[in-house]
């Protein structure tokens, strides 16, 4: 049986190969996640080209917080 670390490494390699197209709106890549967090924290750097992205984030209802805190706000 593989260790959790080995399975994690395989999964980390598999994800970008399978879902690597960052243009897919249903896929939140690490890079997109970091950009969402920056936007929600108010530190998004480039205001000129992110109006569509801001709208997308708002329409998805993304929030920052612990899972229990976010779930309770619905």
Which stretches of 5+ consecutive residues score pLDDT under 50?
none
Describe the largest sheet: none
Task: Report mean pLDDT, rounded to a whole number.
Answer: 78
Oligomer: single chain
How is this structure best described in words?
This protein is mostly helical and 74 residues long. The protein has one domain (4-72). It has 4 helices and no strands.
List the helices and strands and how they pair.
Blueprint: H1 4-19, H2 30-41, H3 51-60, H4 67-72
Keywords:
74 residues, 0% strand, extended, mainly alpha
Summarize it:
With 74 residues, the protein is mainly alpha-helical.
